[in-house]
């Protein structure tokens, strides 16, 4: 998903993908391409791998939607609304796309990204977040989605290989050197 041209036009539209340079999480390194690496070919190999380990089409699409949601989350912006640095989420295409890709309501997503709820006895207190707090919440949500998706994918691969392992004694090991 690094290069939006890697996915089919239908998939790009469904996931609302744009050029890699338009995503804050991708453009920070100023390295969007690698010489002699064909992102389109890599994407097709990924899709073949999903099919090889028998991940159903519906789950493949959901996984790609969550990856796209992570990309879009990095572009969520906030506007300061008072002198205490409290924020509201800017209600724009970005929030609409994140909510659609995550399968949630955009207004509820905006509340989650701009407030903190806690219980004090029987009372539920809602506190507005400051810009640094809201940014941390947004980035944490992206990391949680990405880490959960990674763990789910490893579990799917392991489950798929369990049957084959009895016959072939083959396995795949994954080392997550960037783990959380």
From TrEMBL:
Alphabetical UniProt keywords: Actin-binding, ATP-binding, Calmodulin-binding, Motor protein, Myosin, Nucleotide-binding, Repeat
Record domain Myosin motor: where: 1-180
The organism's place on the tree of life at top rank: Eukaryota
GO terms under cellular component: myosin complex
One Pfam family from the record: Myosin_head
GO terms assigned for molecular function: actin binding; ATP binding; calmodulin binding; cytoskeletal motor activity
Claim: DNA repair is one of the keywords in the record: no
GO term, biological process aspect, one: actin filament-based movement
UniProt xrefs under SMART domains: MYSc
Alphabetized InterPro entries for the sequence: Myosin_head_motor_dom-like, P-loop_NTPase
Family recorded in the similarity comment: Belongs to the TRAFAC class myosin-kinesin ATPase superfamily. Myosin family.
Name the record gives this protein: Myosin motor domain-containing protein
């Amino acid at each position: 998903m690094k290069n939006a041209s890697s996915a089919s036009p239908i998939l790009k539209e469904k996931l609302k993908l744009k050029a890699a340079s338009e995503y804050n999480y991708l453009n920070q390194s100023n390295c969007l391409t690698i010489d002699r690496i064909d992102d389109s070919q890599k994407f097709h190999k990924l899709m073949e791998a999903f099919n090889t380990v028998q991940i159903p089409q519906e789950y493949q699409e959901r996984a790609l939607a969550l990856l796209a949601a992570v990309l879009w989350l990095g572009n969520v912006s906030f506007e300061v609304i008072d002198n205490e640095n409290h924020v509201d989420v800017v209600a724009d295409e970005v929030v609409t796309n994140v909510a659609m890709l995550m399968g949630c309501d955009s207004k509820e997503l905006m509340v989650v990204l701009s407030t903190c709820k806690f219980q004090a006895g029987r009372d539920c207190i809602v506190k507005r977040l400051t810009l640094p707090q809201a940014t941390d919440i947004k980035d944490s949500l992206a990391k949680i989605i990405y880490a959960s998706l990674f763990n789910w994918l490893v579990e799917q691969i392991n489950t798929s290989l369990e049957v084959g392992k009895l016959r072939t004694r083959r396995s795949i090991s994954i080392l997550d050197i960037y783990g959380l």
